[in-house]
Design the sequence.
C-alpha cells in the first residue's frame, strides 16, 4: 500500500520547498535541554547545509537554566524548543511566545512504574503512593487529574528528585514517576528495567504536541522571510533524519560536545520517534500544529487552573487559543 509519508519526506529532503535568502542571516535557537533526539532535525539541517542553502547562519545555543521560552520571549533567541505547558502558561501571562512548528505530532510522555507492581492496575491505585518528581505544579495537576478521572482522590506523596527519579524508580525507592517514552522509556528497555505505564490520553488528558518550536510575534513580524526559510530548512532536517537515522545519529552525537556518548540509546530513541509516527505523522504530517489538539489542551489546562494572566489571576474563561500558535510560516 502506498505510504504518503515517503513522498512527502523525499520531497522535503530534496529541498524543493526551502526558500533561499539573498545573504546569510544569523538565527539563534535555544534548546530546552542538553542535545537529544527531539533536537535532531536542527543538528541535521545544520550539518547537511540546509540552513546555509536557505541563506541562514544558525547558532544552536548551549542549554542554560533559563527556559527557551523566556529566551525567545525576551528576544535573546529567535526560536526555541519549548513544551506546550510553557507555551500556554507564558503566553497567557503576557509573554511574546507563539508556537510555530510541532516537532512531534502526539504525546511522548507517560506515567510509569515497575512491572512487578501487581498492586498498581489503574491510576486510582496510585492514591497514597510516592511519586518521584521534578518539582513543578504541573506534575501534581496532571497526576491528580488522571487519578480522579479513574475514580481516585488524587492524593499521593511527592518527592522532588529531578532526573534521579529514574534510578529511584528502578531500585524501588519511589512507586512511580513521569518519563518521556522516546528517551527514558527506551533507556529503561535497553537497561532491562521492565516497566508498565499509563498513557495520559486514556485518563482525561488531551493528546498534545509534546515538543515544539516557538518564536516571538515580534520576530515573525520583523523577519517573515527568515522565519519561513528557517522552518523550511528545519523541516528538511527532521525529514532527512527519518529517512537516514544512522547518519542522523552520527550527526547529533558528533555535534553534542561529548554530551551524547551512548550511540545505541540515541539510535534506539530516534527509531522510536520514527516508528511511533512522532516526527512524521501516520498521515504524512510533519511540523504542522493541530488546532483542535491545541484547543483541547488549552481547555484542559484552563479547567485544572494552570492558566494565569499577567496579574496572577486564574483565567475563568477560555482565551483565543488560535493566537497561541501559527502554521503560517511553514512550507505550504
Sequence:
Amino acid at each position: 500500500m502506498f505510504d504518503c509519508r515517503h513522498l512527502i519526506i523525499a520531497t522535503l529532503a530534496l529541498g524543493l520547498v526551502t526558500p533561499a535568502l539573498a545573504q546569510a542571516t544569523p538565527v539563534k535557537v535555544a534548546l530546552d535541554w542538553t542535545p537529544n533526539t527531539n533536537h535532531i532535525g536542527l543538528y541535521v539541517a545544520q550539518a547537511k547545509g540546509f540552513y546555509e542553502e536557505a541563506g541562514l547562519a544558525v547558532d544552536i545555543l548551549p542549554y542554560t537554566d533559563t527556559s527557551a521560552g523566556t529566551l525567545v520571549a525576551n528576544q535573546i533567541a529567535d526560536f526555541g524548543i519549548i513544551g506546550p505547558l510553557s507555551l500556554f502558561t507564558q503566553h497567557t501571562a503576557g509573554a511574546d511566545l507563539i508556537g510555530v512548528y510541532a516537532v512531534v505530532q502526539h504525546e511522548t510522555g507517560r506515567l510509569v512504574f515497575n512491572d512487578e507492581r501487581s498492586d498498581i492496575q489503574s491510576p486510582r491505585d496510585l492514591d497514597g503512593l510516592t511519586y518521584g518528581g521534578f518539582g513543578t505544579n504541573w506534575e501534581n495537576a496532571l497526576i491528580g487529574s488522571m487519578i480522579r478521572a479513574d475514580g481516585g482522590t488524587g492524593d499521593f506523596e511527592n518527592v522532588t528528585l529531578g532526573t534521579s527519579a529514574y534510578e529511584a524508580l528502578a531500585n524501588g525507592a519511589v512507586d512511580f514517576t513521569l518519563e518521556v517514552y522516546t528517551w527514558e522509556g527506551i533507556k529503561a528497555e535497553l537497561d532491562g528495567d521492565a516497566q508498565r505505564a499509563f498513557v495520559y490520553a486514556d485518563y482525561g488528558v488531551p493528546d498534545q504536541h509534546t515538543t515544539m518550536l516557538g518564536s516571538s510575534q515580534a520576530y515573525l513580524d520583523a523577519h517573515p522571510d527568515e522565519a519561513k526559510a528557517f522552518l523550511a530548512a528545519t523541516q528538511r532536517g527532521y525529514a532527512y533524519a527519518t529517512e537516514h537515522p544512522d547518519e542522523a545519529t552520527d550527526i547529533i552525537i558528533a555535534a553534542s560536545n561529548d554530551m551524547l556518548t551512548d550511540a545505541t540509546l540515541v539510535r534506539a530513541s530516534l527509531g522510536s520517534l520514527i516508528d511511533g509516527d512522532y516526527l512524521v505523522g501516520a498521515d504524512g504530517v510533519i511540523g504542522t500544529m493541530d488546532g483542535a489538539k491545541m484547543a483541547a489542551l488549552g481547555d484542559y489546562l484552563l479547567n485544572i487552573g494552570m492558566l494565569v494572566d499577567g496579574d496572577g489571576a486564574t483565567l475563568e474563561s477560555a482565551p483565543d487559543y488560535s493566537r497561541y500558535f501559527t502554521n503560517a510560516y511553514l512550507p505550504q
In short: DSSP finds 13 helices and ten strands in the chain. The mean pLDDT is 94.
